[in-house]
Design goal:
By secondary structure, the chain is mainly alpha-helical. Helix content is 52%, strand content 6%.
């Protein structure tokens, strides 16, 4: 029976117990004080024993988790040791590294408790670090804030490159415990990627994404659970040097004479062809256009327009991305053909970009290797600059922040439409 938590306060006995440090935030206090409502010591002890059982059950449940870092007997003992205010240390480490008063204190606690708590404070189970695959699972738990507000599709898109990075690392060095990861493993990982880059003509960026994402995952886990580990140092100098490059805008002549020319785009699907039209005079991001719902496309209005806003299939890149864009020229033509939006590619921006870029490269239509579908957005902004559109108009249309504080609601639809008419490229319906 837990007599040490029974203290007399005046005429009655009270249950007084210090809350372990690791549970104080959860419990909301650092000490539990409860009147046992009796002046009889024996009755007080019986009541205190019952209260202790209930409290310890609640505390134990509060430490339970589905995290892959908290499975098996070892991890249960780690949690219980924390419950009693100790850092878990295996008995061998405890004997060699702990101070004598700490050992005596642990022994004293163990003698007063049941078998499992005694094993926890005395380090009965050898240490066991998680393998790399389990570190990835733990990373999902530690990074829930990064996916808050994202759609299911966006979460999968966020997770997949991280899964790939860890899977590729495991391919090279095996699914070893995180503490056994060595500098030589990262050197081998870099060499594995260098061979793939050379054999398959890949971009160095593909390798660097793997290095960055695997480092972030393993550092997040190690710095949370094993702060003594130095994972960051293993990645020093691993990145592959990239050649500087710049996305180039398309010329107006190329857009009108090639991209909007049905004869030159023969073989391209109709929805992809109309997507080019939609992007030409809106400058919107691919994800923004493929995320449009029927209610975001307003054609029955004095100024036809689209509304870029968060919806059920996509979030927005920044708060400035929310905006209304008037429809003119080729873009108005596109949405008149597709008033419900891009149904084939709705919510599938990567699929559309890949399909369109593949068609352009397979048919050798891009002016250079520095051009891509995204060059249309650069072209749109360049035309606004050449037309000397005010900074606020440019920012409101592009979904950018501006270099000074925003005041008011910005330009109205009609005013934005006037500037867009000045840079509009028309649909070429005769070819």
């Amino acid at each position: 029976m837990k007599t040490r938590y029974v203290q007399k306060n005046g005429r009655l006995y009270w249950y007084i117990r210090v809350v372990p440090i690791h549970l104080r935030e959860l419990v909301g206090k650092d000490k539990i004080k409860m009147s046992l409502k009796t002046a009889d010591f024996n009755q007080a002890v019986i009541k205190a024993d019952k209260i202790s059982g209930e409290i310890e059950k609640l505390w134990d449940e509060s430490l339970s988790t589905d995290s892959p870092m908290n499975t098996g007997k070892f991890n249960r003992l780690v949690r219980i040791a924390k419950l009693y205010g100790y850092r878990y240390q295996p008995e061998g480490e405890l004997a060699h590294e702990a101070r004598i008063h700490d050992i005596i204190d642990r022994i004293d606690t163990a003698e007063k408790e049941k078998k499992t708590p005694a094993e926890a404070v005395l380090g009965a189970e050898p240490f066991s670090y998680p393998p790399l695959s389990k570190c990835l699972e733990e990373y999902w738990t530690l990074s829930k804030d990064e996916v808050r507000g994202k759609t299911a599709f966006e979460i999968r898109k966020w997770e997949n490159p991280r899964k790939k990075a860890i899977a590729n690392l495991i391919t090279v060095c095996g699914d070893k415990p995180i503490d056994q990861l060595k500098r030589s493993d990262l050197v081998a990982f870099r060499q594995w990627w260098m061979e793939r880059i050379e054999e398959n003509d890949l971009s160095p960026n593909s390798a660097n994404k793997d290095f960055t994402k695997s480092k972030v995952i393993l550092c997040k886990v190690s710095e949370t659970h094993f702060p003594e580990m130095k994972i960051r140092a293993l990645y020093e100098g691993v990145k592959v040097r990239e050649q500087p490059g710049k996305r180039h805008p398309f010329t107006t002549e190329f857009i009108a004479g090639t991209l909007l020319n049905r004869a030159k785009m023969a073989g391209m699907g109709e929805e992809l062809f109309l997507f080019l039209h939609a992007m030409v005079n809106t400058g919107a991001r691919v994800k923004e256009l493929t995320g449009l719902m029927k209610e975001d496309i307003v054609l029955d209005h004095a100024v036809p327009h689209i509304i870029i806003r968060k919806n059920e299939i996509r979030s927005l890149k920044t708060k400035n991305s929310e905006r209304v864009i008037p429809l003119v020229g080729a873009s108005l033509y596109a949405f008149r053909q597709l008033p419900d939006g891009f149904r084939q590619y709705r919510g599938k921006s990567d699929n559309l970009s890949n399909a369109l870029n593949k068609f352009m490269r397979d048919h050798d239509l891009y002016p250079s290797n520095d051009h891509s579908l995204y060059s249309l957005r650069h072209s749109f902004q360049d035309r606004l600059i050449l037309a000397e559109a005010p900074e606020r108009i440019q920012a409101d249309l592009m979904g950018h922040a501006i270099s000074r504080p925003r005041y008011g609601d910005g330009a109205g639809l009609a005013q934005k439409a006037e500037w867009m008419e000045k840079i509009s490229i028309e649909a070429n319906n005769t070819v």
